[in-house]
Amino acid sequence: MDRKLLQYLVEYLVEEGKAHGCALPPAAADAAQGGLASASTEALWLAFRSLVNVRPPWPAPGEFLATQDELLQGLIAEAGVATLADTTPSPTDPRLRLWRGDITTLAADAIVNAANSGMTDCWAPLHYCIDNAIHTFAGVQLRAACANLMAAQGHPEPTSQAKVTDGYNLPARYVIHTVGPIANGRPTDTHRRQLAECYRACLDATAKAGLSSIAFCCISTGVFGFPQEEAASIAVATVRRWLNEHPDVPMTVVFNVFSETDESLYRPLLGL
């Protein structure tokens, strides 16, 4: 992690926030308290991440974007970029694959972001949900792009649709954003239908964009509270059905999981 790049970025973001009368998030305030020049690299990273988490989609100068892009691309390269060849194919259906890892390091044509109805990230400093992670490592350009989409739409994003943006600094070329159902641990038939529609909408968007690979996160199973086992079954069944209904569309689908629990749920569904 390049400390010089981080210090420049944090200094810019702190001054930008002050100019707009914004309070610093705690991690940034902590780093700034003793002087950014003496802050540790880890403290600067937490400050940077928390600042971009709360930064509105303001225009950013070219120097900031170039520095940010260099930092984020370097971090992703250090973490190691995974390709489709690193994923595990289903022995019963080679169109389907499983991969456990950080979706922000996966070089698929598109990755799926589990968004909220605001569509511009979760805004919670240092919250480690997938929405926050994807926006952080894509860069501030992603929030700006989502804000433009929402301004043009004029209303919150409905459940079970899909919107496509560039991936910016991510290895994935595109991000497909979908809002899953909020089940709170007690899914209804409507929630089940909405979850299936999320998968279909993302696949439709991928095909319409002319892409041939997509990596799904576990939609709605985080704070939205859809039970993981049932969500996994719906995901695999819905994707299989869509692929069978579109035999002329070449598509590789990766189910990306982050936890050992989710991996154990998907393996038998994929015949692994």
List the keywords:
Protein-ADP-ribose hydrolase; alpha/beta; single chain; 272 residues; Leucine Aminopeptidase, subunit E, domain 1; hydrolase activity, acting on glycosyl bonds; seven-stranded mixed beta sheet
Describe this structure in words.
It is a single chain. The protein has a seven-stranded mixed sheet, with helices on both faces. The protein has two domains: 3-78, no CATH class; 81-269, Leucine Aminopeptidase, subunit E, domain 1. The longest helix is centred in the C-terminal third of the chain and has 20 residues, at 189-208. It contains nine helices and seven strands. By secondary structure, the protein is of the alpha/beta class. Keywords: Glycosidase, Hydrolase, Metal-binding, Zinc.
Instruction: Describe the global form.
Output: globular
What's the structural domain tally? 2
Helix/sheet category:
alpha/beta
User: Residue share in helices?
Assistant: 40-55%
What is the typical, i.e. mean, pLDDT?
Answer: 97
Largest sheet: 7 strands, mixed
**Major sheet: order of its strands?**
1-2-7-6-3-5-4
CATH topology of the largest domain: Leucine Aminopeptidase, subunit E, domain 1
DSSP strand content: 5-15%
Regions with little confidence, pLDDT below 50 for 5+ residues: none
At the first level of CATH, the class of the largest domain is: Alpha Beta
Distance between the termini: 37 Å
Number of strands: 7
Helix-strand pattern: HHHHEEEHHEEHEHEH
User: Judging by the overall fold, what is the CATH architecture of the largest domain?
Assistant: 3-Layer(aba) Sandwich
Radius of gyration: 19 Å
CATH superfamily of the largest domain: Leucine Aminopeptidase, subunit E, domain 1
The number of helical segments is 9
Domain Macro: 83-272
Cofactor: Zn(2+)
Keywords: Glycosidase, Hydrolase, Metal-binding, Zinc
InterPro entries: Macro_dom, Macro_dom-like
